[in-house]
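Lab meeting, action items carried over

1. Structure of the three-component assembly. Owner: GW. Status: complete.
Input record:
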Amino acid sequence: MTNYPLPVKQLLDGELTLAELPPELRAAGEEALGLVASVDRTPVTLSPTLDARVMAAVRHRATSRARRVWRWFATPRDLELRLRVRPWAAWASGLAAAAGVALLLTRPPARVPAGAVAARVATPNVVFVRFVLYAPGAKRVAVAGTFNQWDQTAAPLVPAGTGGVWSTTLALPVGQHQYAFVVDGRRWVADPAAPAVDDGFGRRNSVVAVTAQGARTL
Amino acid sequence: MRALRLVLIVALGAASPRGSAAQDAAARMDGRVPADVARAVQAIAEGARARGLPVEPLIQKAIEGSAKGVPAERVVEAVRVLAGRLDEAQGALREAGIATPGADAVEGGAYALTAGLTASQVRELVRLSQPSYDPALTLHVAATLTALGVPPEQSLQVMERRIQARQGANELLDLPNEVEVGMARGATPAEATREVEETESQQGVTSTSAAPPPPNRPARANPHKP
Amino acid sequence: MDSRNGTPDEAVVRAVLAGDVELYAVLVERYRDRYARYAARMLGSRDAAEDAVQDALVRAFDRLADCREPAKFAGWLFLILRNRCFAERRRNQRQGRPLEYADEAVAGPERSDGAVERRESVQAVEHALGQLTPEQREAFVLKHVEGLSYDEIAGLTGATVASLKMRMHRAYDRLRDLLKEHES
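Predicted assembly:
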């Protein structure tokens, strides 16, 4: 593997002329120039329909921008539905322990395991999301968030059996939502399995992103 | 003719009554927010709107505080703090080179600040994101990582690697999920993030020899010859 | 050429941002072919180039509010296209697809002056170009196909002139080796 001598490279770069090369390098210089001259410089023209296709996409975006649907999740992808349960943590006050479980969708495989709950796409802009809370000893549980104006009467959870598991299914619009569970009408509990942000009032909210493919952590 | 038409559009925009937007906000808070809180929030929202900031998050925050039974002064204070964060986010976006940041980006920036990133980290991330990535998206990802418990510097670092490796938006959006998978196995957020980074470099996904273009270098006018 | 096409990029960008979406067609028409050759060389075929240019133009619209200097729309669009080309190249590499150059010269119709030898050597060089790293190929294309100076390339891509020269010189050597292999 022999490299071109530096002066030949400088010739190719346009920093030297053939005449300026030492005589013993002129042949290599011509060979190199020939190589570079072989490159196809024919201009490329694209199909005349390209303009129409671009403008069609542009017009579509201009109208959907008004709805501020989360365009990041526009590409359909394979889904795996997964229910994650965190071991519940006892609260310092010794009150009924609670552990939040929010339904999360991650990437492939696409097969839905038997018995898993589903986040079903109702329409492209609304998705059914199931909320589950483990709160034995609680008398009332609700979920409140940006999707229902934080109204704790709007989305009560229902006990599933007697094991202390509460759940509900809500139809949520696409976008990012903050939420928290409300236990017995007074205790606001964030989902320990979800990302949490300061709510500005000394507590924390949970965050979930609802996309056209389901619910996910952002 | 077209220049004249543009001027007309702009003038109309400025003259349209702000009253209707204020009425919307009042209607939203009616019955959910005590009158004195609503009045104070309206004032804050007016100021925010005048500075070109999105107002929706402020109304939401007032409704949230009232629903949670938080005392009036605390609700107003939280709304004020949020308005300040939106302002700070807008400033950071401008400093990062976005002349007119969209509402999504400003809200993303405020979310990032609330999650624990500093204004200069927001600025840095936005600079890094240009021109290929929507800053609203990258800010949301960084904020969510931080909200999961990943130290802010580390959140930025792992995102920077993917951005410099020119990964797609989906690869960025997946980061929080990937970290959560590690956490579900018992790792701390920081450990889980390190695992994600290590797997990546093993697979050689990150960029090799090319130095990425410095994001804040101005793009020169294209000198391509005709 | 109607008066709209004489309008500077900056004015068109601002008008589109103000809501006149249809005016974006001016920019599309203005730039659709300017980078076509670069994209074709980077991706190996006209079809791939067309997809990349289309995507870049749509993406530029999506992100128009983030264009820092509307007067420099051209360079900004180029960066978007460039990133798109690199991303596609990376995707192909991950999927194990080498850069394939179409059998005909990338630019298009069969040359009627048909010096078979010339056509073969063009194809050989194109094939060799496809074996360079994307960065090397880009440097080579910008300099020897698009005819830009090192300073101009540095300004477009953000690389330093020194690193560009290094890349280019490696590219020259690599091309020479590949073509020698091809001959034997």
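2. GW to write a short summary for the group page. Key points so far: Confidence is low (pLDDT under 50) at residues 102-110 of chain C. The domain at 1-104 of chain C is CATH 1.10.1740.10 (Rna Polymerase Sigma Factor; Chain: A).
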